Amino acid sequence: MTSAPTARNPAPRSGRPSAAPPVVRPTDHDEVATAASEVAGGPAGRRAVSGTGWWTPIRTVVALALAMYTLGMLQKLPCLDGGWFSGQTAQYVHACYSDIPHLYHGRGFADGLVPYLDRIPDRISGGMDYLEYPVLTGAFMYLAATLTVGGDSLQQDEQLYWVVNAGMLLVCAAVLIVCVARTHRNRPWDGMLVALAPALALTATINWDLLAVSMTAAGMLLWSRSRPLAAGVLIGLATAAKLYPALLLGPLLLLCWRAGRWGAFGRAAGGAAASWAVVNVPVMLLSWEGWSKFYRFSQERPVDFGSLWLILQQRTGRTFDDANIYATLLMALGCAGIAALALCAPRRPRFAQLAFLVVALFVLTNKVYSPQYVLWLIPLAALARPKWRDFLIWQSCETLYFLGIWMYLAYNGSDKHQGLPEDGYQLVIAAHLLGTAYLCAMVVRDALRPEHDPVRRDDGSDDPGGGVLDRAPDAFSLTSLTRPPVLQRSAAPVARAAVHWGTTLRE
Question: Which parts of the sequence are annotated with region: Disordered (predicted)?
Fold first, then answer.
C-alpha cells in the first residue's frame, strides 16, 4: 500500500505532464510590493501574468537591472574623471573606489605580464609577487587588459581598463538577472529583488566578483532544471573564479542525502571537480608558485576590514593572529547547525535556503568583509526569501556599510581626519553583521515553519529551484526517527484559487 503524501514526504511527480503553475505576482502577496506598485499604476494585472506583449517579466526585470547598473557606473564618475589618481582620499570621499584601475598597473597588466606565469616586480606590486586571484578571474582580468587599447598615458589606460571591465561585468550582471528570474519557473518577478538591489549597483564594479556570482546563478538554474552534471560544471567554474561557490555542494549533499538522490549529487560533485581541475591543473603544472598565491594570501591575510574580528581587535587591543582557527571553528559549528536544520526540519528545506545560510555563515565568520562580497548573497537572498520588507532591511544595512567603509578610509587617509572615526566604523560593521544575521533568522524560521515560507505559501510550491529534489519523497530524516509523520493537505489548490479570484477581480 502506498502511504499518503505528507509535509515531509510530498507526492512524487507522475509521468504525466501537469499544468504549469500560475505566475506569482508579488503585488498579490507582498504588502511592500503592493504599496510600491501604486507609483507605477497599481498592482500587476492580466498582462503581467500572461506575459503577452514585448515587455515580458524577464525583459522588464533585465531592463531595470541594466538601468540600475548604469546608475552604479555613473556613481563612479568622480573617480573616472580623476578621483582615482588625484589624491589618496578623493576616491573615498566620493565613495567611488574600485580595485580595477589600480591593479591594471599594480599587477603587471600594463606591462604585458601573464598572470601566474610572470613574477610581478616589486617596484609596481608593493610586494605582491604573483596575482592573488583564482585562475578564472585572472583570465578575465587578462582578457580585459588585452582589450584595453588606445590610451595616451598610463592614467588613461587605467581608466579604459575600468570601462572595459565594467562592460564585461555588465554582461555578467545580465546573465545573473536572467538566471535568477528563471530559476523558479513561476516566480520571474523575484528577479526584481536582484535588479533593484542598491548594493548591486554600488559594488558591481569594485572588483570582479560578478563573474563568479553569475556562473553560480547559472549553475543553480541548471540544477533547477534537473541537470545536475551541467550544474556541477558551472559551480566548478565559478569556484575557479572565487572560492565561495564550492560551499553550495554542502547543501546539495545534505538535501540529496535526505531525498536519497545520491546519483544526482555524484554527478554534480563530479562535474564541479572536473571543471575546476580543467581550469586549474594546467596552471598548477606550469607555475605552482603563481597558482597557489591566492590560497597562500587567503591563509596569511591578517584580520581586515568589515569583520567581527576587527571589532574585537580594535576594542580589546589584541592582535588576532589565530583568527583563522576561530573562524574555522565557528564555520564548522555553523555548518553543523545547518546540517541539523536540513535533516531535522519538518519538511525538507529548499536548496536556495540552505545555500544562502552557508554562504552567509562564511561571510559572518570570515576575517575580512570587502563591500563587494554582498554580491555573493544578493541572488541567494532573492531565491531564499523573496520578501521585500526583509530584503530592504538587509540592503539598508549593507548600503550603510558601503558608505561607512569609505568614510572610515577617508578619516584615516588624511591629516584632517574628515570622515568616520573608529567607533563609528565599528557601528556600521555591526549593522552589516546584524542585518545579515536577521535575514538568516528569517530563512531559518521559514525552514522550520514552512507555512511562513513565501515560496511555498504563495502557490503551494515545494522547491521550484530544487530540480530532482522538487516534491521528491524523503528517504531519510532525523525527524522521522523521533515522531510519526503528520498528514498535511497540499496548499496548492487553495493558493491557485486565490490567485484566480484575485486576477478576476482586478480585471
Answer: 1-28
Write the pLDDT tens digit of every residue in 307-356.
999 999 999 988 888 899 999 999 999 999 999 999 999 999 999 999 99
Q: Which three cell numbers stand for residue 238?
A: 565559478
Burial status of residue 327 (CB atoms within 10 A of its CB: 0-12, 13-18, 19 or more): buried
For the chain, the average pLDDT equals 88
Note the pLDDT of residue 500: 38
Integer Cα distance of 237 and 59 in angstroms: 27
For range 147-151, the mean pLDDT: 88
> 3-class SS at 6?
strand
| Distance in angstroms (rounded) separating the CA atoms of residues 382 and 194 | 7
pLDDT digits (tens, 9 = 90+) for 187-215: 999 999 999 999 999 999 999 999 999 99
Neighbouring residues of 24: CB distance < 8 A, sequence distance ≥ 6? 186, 187, 189, 458, 459, 499
C-alpha count within 13 angstroms, C-beta hemisphere, residue 395: 22
Q: Residue 480 CA to chain centroid, in angstroms? A: 33
Query: Exposure string (b/e) for 229-250, b if CB count within 10 Å is 16 or more?
Result: bbbbbbbbbbbbbbebbbbbbb
Per-residue confidence band for 32, with pLDDT thresholds at 50, 70 and 90: confident
Q: What are phi and psi of 88, to 5 degrees?
A: -70, -35
pLDDT at 462: 93
Domain ranges of the chain: 26-506
Q: Helix, strand, or coil here: 487?
A: strand
Q: What are phi and psi of 4, to 5 degrees?
A: -70, 150
Residue 443 to residues 382, 397, 466, Cα–Cα distance (Å): 11, 17, 16
d(CA 208, CA 290): 19
Beta-bridged to residue 6, according to DSSP, are 487
Whether residue 10 is predicted with pLDDT greater than 60 in this model: the reply is: no
Query: CA nearest 297: which of 395, 368, 201?
Result: 368
Q: How many CB atoms lie within 10 A of CB 393?
A: 15
Residue 259 has pLDDT above 70, yes or no: yes
Asked if 21 and 186 touch (Cβ cutoff 8 Å), the reply is yes
Q: Does pTM surpass 0.85?
A: yes
Contact yes or no for 26/181 (Cβ under 8 A): no
Q: What letter does residue 19 receive in the DSSP assignment?
A: P
* 418 grid coordinates: 574628515
Per-residue model confidence as pLDDT tens digits over 238-256 = 999 999 999 999 999 999 9
Alpha carbon 18 to its chain centroid, in Å, reads: 32
Residue pair 68/46 in contact (Cβ under 8 Å)? The answer is no
Helix count and strand count (H, E) for the chain: 25, 0
The runs of H, that is alpha helices, within 184-208 are 191-195, 198-203
The residue to which cell 515580458 is assigned: 56
